[in-house]
C-alpha cells in the first residue's frame, strides 16, 4: 500500500548514502521532508520521480551537507518519489505508472499513485511554496536545459538561472511542474546523463541559488536571457516494428530490424536539422514508420516524416531533443521530441 510519509528532519543515513538502490533501507515509502530555513516560504524540490535518474538525489544530498552546520537560507521541502523502482534502477516498474505523469491534471485514471501526488500537492499548497524544481536526467546526449509549462516572466527567469535553453511544453499532462504551476513558478531541470559529477554540481548550485533569492523576478527592465523551444511532437516507434542502432557499417543486408538508426543519433539533440535529413533507414517492404504525436495525441506523422525508398527523412526543418539509444526508455516513453524555436 502506497502512502506518503512526511518528516521534519533528515533521516539518519541519508547524507551518507552512496547508492540510490539502497534508499529503500532509509525511506520505505515516497517521502516528503520539510526542513525549516531562515525565509519561511519553502522551496519545493522533487527527485527520483524517474528512479533511474539519480542526479537530483545526489544534488539535494550535497546541498544538505553544505548546510549541516548552518541554517538553510530558506525552508526546503524535498520529495523523494519512486523509492520502489530506485531499488531496481529503473525509470518505473512495469507494474507502476510513470511517476511524472500522475500529478494533478493528469489524464491517467485515478490510482494509488495519482492519490499520492495529490497528497504531495495538497501538503505543499498549504505551505504557500516559493518555487518548485523537479530534477531529471536524460538517457541520451543532451545539453542541460530547463522545461516550463507556462511562458510567464517568473517561470522563464527561474529556468534561466539553470540554463539559457528552455523547452516549453503542454503535453504530456500530469507532470510535477505543471501541477505546481498552479501555486508558484515551476521548472523541470534536465541535467544530462545520470550520476555525473558536473550534473550533480550544476543542480546543487541551482537549488542553492534559488534558496537565496528573495523573489523570483527578473531585474526591472530586463527580459530573461533565454532561447525558447516548443515541443511540437513526440515520436514513438510502433510496437510491431523492430529497431536497432547501426555500428556505422551495418546496412539492411546484415541487419534485420525494420528501422535502423545511426549509432550516434543522439549527437543531433538540440541541433537544427534541415528538411530532407535522413533520420533512419527502413527495411524494404516492412511498412515500418515513426509516429509523431501532437499535443492532442493526434497522429501527425505525415507533417514531419517522409519515406523515400529506404530513407526515412524529415519533411521540414526541425530540432530533435531527448533522442536516446536506450531501447527500454524508447519503448517505455519515446524515441525523441521534435521542437521549434519560439519567440515571446
Ligand atoms: Zn525524467
Characterise this structure.
The protein is of the alpha/beta class and 344 residues long. It folds into two domains: 5-225, 3-Layer(aba) Sandwich (Aminopeptidase); 231-342, no CATH class. The protein is built from eight helices and 17 strands. The chain has helices spanning 55-66, 83-88, 112-125, 153-160, 176-180, 197-212, 301-304, 327-332; strands at residues 5-7, 31-35, 37-47, 72-80, 131-136, 145-148, 165-168, 186-190, 227-236, 243-246, 259-262, 278-282, 291-293, 305-308, 311-314, 319-321, 336-342. Helix 1 (55-66) crosses helix 6 (197-212). The relative contact order is 0.13. The structure holds zinc ion. Zinc ion is lined by residues 50, 53, 136. Zinc ion binds at residues 50, 53, 136.
Overall 3D geometry?
globular
Strand coverage percent: 25-35%
What would CATH call the class of the largest domain?
Answer: Alpha Beta
Global Rg:
21 Å
Q: What level of helicity do the residues show? A: 10-25%
Q: Based on DSSP secondary structure assignment, what is the total number of beta strands?
A: 17
**CATH homologous superfamily descriptor of the largest domain:** Zn peptidases
Q: What is the overall number of helices?
A: 8
| Average pLDDT reading | 94
The biggest sheet, with number of strands, parallel, antiparallel or mixed sense and barrel status, is: 12 strands, mixed
Runs in which pLDDT lies below 50 for 5 or more consecutive residues are: none
Count of discrete structural domains: 2
In short:
By secondary structure, this protein is of the alpha/beta class. It is built from eight helices and 17 strands.
Amino acid at each position: 500500500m502506497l502512502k506518503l510519509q512526511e518528516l521534519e528532519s533528515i533521516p539518519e543515513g541519508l547524507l551518507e548514502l552512496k547508492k540510490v538502490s539502497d534508499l529503500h533501507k532509509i525511506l520505505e515509502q515516497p517521502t516528503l521532508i520539510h526542513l525549516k530555513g531562515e525565509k519561511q516560504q519553502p522551496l519545493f524540490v522533487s527527485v527520483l520521480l524517474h528512479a533511474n535518474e539519480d542526479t537530483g538525489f545526489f544534488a539535494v544530498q550535497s546541498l544538505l551537507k553544505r548546510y549541516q552546520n548552518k541554517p538553510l537560507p530558506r525552508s526546503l521541502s524535498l520529495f523523494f518519489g519512486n523509492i520502489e523502482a530506485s531499488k531496481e534502477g529503473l525509470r518505473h516498474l512495469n507494474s507502476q505508472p510513470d511517476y511524472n505523469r500522475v500529478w494533478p491534471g493528469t489524464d491517467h485514471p485515478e490510482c494509488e499513485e495519482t492519490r499520492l501526488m495529490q497528497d504531495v500537492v495538497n501538503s505543499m499548497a498549504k505551505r504557500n511554496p516559493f518555487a518548485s524544481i523537479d530534477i531529471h536526467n536524460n538517457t541520451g546526449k543532451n545539453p542541460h536545459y530547463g522545461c516550463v509549462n507556462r511562458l510567464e516572466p517568473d517561470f522563464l527567469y527561474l529556468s534561466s538561472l539553470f540554463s539559457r535553453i528552455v523547452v516549453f511544453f503542454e503535453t504530456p499532462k500530469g507532470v510535477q511542474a505543471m501541477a505546481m504551476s498552479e501555486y508558484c513558478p515551476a521548472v523541470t531541470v534536465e541535467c544530462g546523463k545520470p550520476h555525473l559529477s558536473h550534473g550533480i554540481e550544476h543542480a546543487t548550485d541551482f537549488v542553492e541559488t534559488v534558496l537565496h533569492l528573495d523573489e523570483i523576478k527578473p531585474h526591472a527592465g530586463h527580459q530573461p536571457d533565454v532561447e525558447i523551444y516548443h515541443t511540437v511532437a513526440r515520436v514513438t516507434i510502433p510496437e510491431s516494428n523492430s529497431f536497432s542502432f547501426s555500428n556505422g557499417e551495418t546496412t539492411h543486408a546484415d541487419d534485420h530490424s525494420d528501422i535502423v538508426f545511426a549509432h550516434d543519433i543522439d549527437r543531433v539533440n538540440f541541433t537544427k536539422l534541415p528538411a530532407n535529413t535522413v533520420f533512419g533507414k527502413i527495411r524494404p517492404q516492412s511498412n515500418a514508420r515513426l509516429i509523431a504525436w501532437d499535443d492532442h495525441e493526434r497522429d501527425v506523422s505525415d507533417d514531419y516524416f517522409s519515406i523515400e525508398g529506404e530513407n526515412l527523412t524529415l519533411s521540414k526543418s526541425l530540432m530533435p531533443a531527448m533522442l536516446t539509444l536506450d531501447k527500454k526508455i524508447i519503448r517505455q516513453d519515446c524515441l525523441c521530441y521534435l521542437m521549434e524555436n519560439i519567440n515571446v
